[in-house]
């Protein structure tokens, strides 16, 4: 075997790995968003998890990638450890799909159709069509299909290059000696572990083994222990991914490790135990690509089926390995960079984090009025802590989203990330305005300022309207409910009118001597903060409603939408105007004569 054969061999391996990578990436983009939706529908059924794990792994062409995604989901609290077990078991089955695709190279027939689907013919055709789709077409979906076809073509080009490069090995003494020694099951298993751990892909290592079948030296006796070793070697990537995760996430990694090791040990003991008494006639026969693929599939399917009744034992073994100690706190990592392996899931998790941030800002807004009416130091400290937490979340979520922008995203995913970055800022500003109201409550406590009953009623009405806007915004954002989103805009308009009316009422109270200037300033600040909260809610829903690729000026967009949906807008506006009708609040303070204003003001002290 010459130097140039080695160059072709390693070049073929590189093409094979690259083709597998971009084909899996393209497949994931085509089903982008669907993976997360499927995972959210998981039940406690082990069979359901197995089917999902096999399906997802079959699509993304990597059991390690599936396991890493599951570790991220468990680490983030999206999925329970019990749900992950079935997916881990199914991933081992899904990873055999690549081998079954590669076995198409064994097709030998004179039939035109069969010759056409043979990789030596199909790979160049797929690469050519893929290049046209990927380079010349602008449609994102078609470009993703082109990427899949390109990956398929490159994968099989690399496979054929490896096959041609290793042919001289059939007469190379050291290689013959190597494969003869690999008939020792221990050495064969170690070789499979080493190669798979080195390239971090069992599908790729099985593909390399399939390519070596062209030398005629790969027999059942040498290949079976290697395949067993490959099954263990792929757990190395999983173990590395679990470093620094929560204990539940570590359990997922150990579940993958134990499942593969126990399955390998049991089947090795079974096969080699039977061989002691029965001489397998096929043991020294040569294997072709199909034989390698079939044994790989058979082993993983059989080990999964055999292990299903013992999932409880596997769970207890993992819990014994990763023990929960007394005093441990269940720390939930909301955002996990391990989910970057699947951008659609990472975006979905960021979306949930933004929703949680919105809920926190709503709670701050609700508590603000409580402090205005009845100041409580403990509640005040709790609100201060929540406001600091909100600021930290803004930084963490923004950094996470910026990290997602560095990934290979579809056009829709890119827009989703941009919108979420804007929404993070909106909810942070809502929290700031809610904190502004809380500061007003502190100022009232320190200066002994209080509002009159009618002023409190007015603020209660305004708070109810703003809380409604926040609730509709969060519901619309969570379910992407356009109907609820559209309702926020007329409500925002009604809130603006309420705020203007409250300002006029405040001026009347000042004229009648029912409110001091100091109390009036605080009252106006509170009204202004509430109005700004409603405005930011409108900004969030406008981005949800808009179909534009670029984020437009929110106020311009609102005016445009008002014109386009005037009937619906006016109907909603009338509904909220009746619901939050200021005339229902009757003036309780009678007007006083100017000569009595000073006495009344002194008697009320600093009341508004």
Description:
This protein has 608 residues and is mainly α. The protein has 2 domains: 319 residues, no CATH class; 246 residues, Phosphate transport system protein phou homolog 2, domain 2 (Methane Monooxygenase Hydroxylase, Chain G, domain 1, Up-down Bundle), CATH 1.20.58.220. The chain is built from 26 helices and no strands. Helix 1 packs antiparallel against helix 9 and helix 13 packs antiparallel against helix 15. The longest helix is centred in the last third of the chain and has 36 residues. The radius of gyration is 33 Å and the shape is elongated.
Q: Which properties best describe this structure?
A:
mainly alpha, about 75% helix, 2 domains, Methane Monooxygenase Hydroxylase, Chain G, domain 1, 26 helices, about 600 residues
Query: How many β-strands, per DSSP?
Result: 0
Q: In total, how many domains does the architecture comprise? A: 2
Can you count the helices?
26
% residues in beta strands: under 5%
Q: What's the order of the H and E elements?
A: HHHHHHHHHHHHHHHHHHHHHHHHHH
Structural class: mainly alpha
Average pLDDT: 79
Sheet bearing the most strands, described?
none
Radius of gyration: 33 Å
**Quaternary arrangement of the chains shown?**
single chain
Fraction of residues in helix: over 70%
In whole angstroms, the N-to-C terminal distance is 96 Å
Question: What are the segments in which pLDDT stays under 50 over at least 5 consecutive residues?
Answer: 326-333, 547-552, 587-608
Shape: elongated
């Amino acid at each position: 075997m010459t130097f140039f054969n080695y160059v072709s061999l390693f070049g073929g391996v590189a093409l094979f790995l690259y083709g597998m990578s971009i084909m899996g990436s393209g497949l994931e983009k085509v089903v982008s968003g669907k993976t997360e939706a499927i995972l959210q529908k998981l039940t406690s059924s082990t069979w359901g998890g197995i089917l999902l794990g096999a399906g997802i792994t079959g699509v993304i062409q990597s059991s390690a990638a599936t396991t890493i995604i599951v570790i991220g989901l468990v680490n983030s609290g999206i999925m329970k450890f019990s749900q992950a077990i079935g997916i881990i078991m199914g991933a081992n089955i899904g990873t055999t799909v690549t081998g079954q695709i590669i076995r198409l190279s064994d097709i030998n027939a004179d039939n035109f159709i069969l010759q056409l689907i043979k990789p030596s013919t199909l790979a160049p055709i797929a690469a050519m069509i893929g290049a046209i789709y990927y380079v010349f077409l602008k449609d994102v979906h078609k470009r993703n299909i082109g990427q899949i076809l390109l990956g398929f073509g490159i994968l099989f080009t690399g496979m054929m290059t490896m096959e041609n490069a290793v042919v001289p090995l059939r007469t190379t003494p050291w290689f013959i000696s190597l494969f003869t020694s690999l008939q020792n099951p221990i050495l064969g298993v170690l070789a499979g572990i080493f190669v798979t751990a080195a390239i971090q892909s069992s599908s790729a290592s099985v593909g390399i083994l399939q390519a070596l079948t062209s030398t005629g030296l790969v027999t059942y006796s040498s290949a079976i222990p290697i395949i067993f070793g490959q099954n263990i070697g792929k757990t190395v990537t999983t173990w590395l991914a679990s470093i620094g995760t929560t204990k539940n996430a570590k359990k997922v990694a150990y579940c993958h490790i134990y499942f593969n090791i126990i399955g390998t040990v049991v089947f090795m003991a079974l096969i080699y135990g039977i061989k002691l008494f029965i001489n397998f006639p096929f043991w020294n026969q040569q294997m072709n690509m199909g034989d390698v693929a079939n044994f790989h599939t058979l082993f993983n399917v059989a080990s999964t089926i055999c292990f299903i009744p013992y999932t409880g034992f596997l769970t207890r073994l993992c819990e014994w390995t990763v023990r929960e100690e007394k005093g441990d706190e269940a720390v939930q990592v909301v955002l996990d960079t391990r989910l970057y392996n699947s951008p659609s899931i990472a975006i979905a998790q960021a979306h949930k984090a933004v929703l949680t941030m919105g809920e926190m800002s709503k709670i701050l807004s609700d508590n603000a009025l409580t402090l205005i009416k009845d100041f409580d130091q403990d509640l005040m400290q709790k609100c201060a802590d929540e406001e600091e937490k909100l600021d930290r979340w803004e930084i963490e979520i923004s950094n996470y989203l910026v990290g997602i922008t560095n990934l290979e995203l579809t056009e829709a995913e890119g827009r989703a990330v941009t919108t979420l970055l804007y929404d993070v800022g909106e909810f942070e500003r809502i929290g700031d305005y809610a904190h502004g109201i809380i500061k007003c409550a502190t100022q009232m406590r320190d200066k002994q300022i209080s509002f009159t009953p009618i002023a409190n009623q007015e603020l209660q009405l305004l708070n109810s309207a703003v809380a409604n806007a926040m609730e509709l915004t969060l519901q619309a954002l969570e379910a992407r409910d356009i109907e609820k989103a559209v309702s926020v805009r007329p409500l925002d308009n009604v809130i603006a009118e309420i705020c203007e009316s409250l300002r006029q009422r405040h001026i009347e109270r000042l004229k009648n001597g029912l409110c001091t200037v100091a109390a009036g300033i605080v009252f106006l600040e509170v009204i202004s903060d509430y109005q700004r909260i409603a405005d930011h809610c409108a900004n969030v829903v406008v981005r949800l409603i808009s179909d534009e690729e670029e984020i437009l000026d929110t106020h311009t967009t609102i005016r445009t939408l008002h014109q386009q949906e005037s009937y619906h807008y006016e109907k909603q506006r009338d509904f909220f105007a009746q619901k939050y009708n200021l005339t229902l609040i009757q003036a309780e303070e009678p007007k006083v004569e100017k000569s009595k204003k000073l006495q009344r003001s002194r008697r009320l002290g600093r009341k508004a």
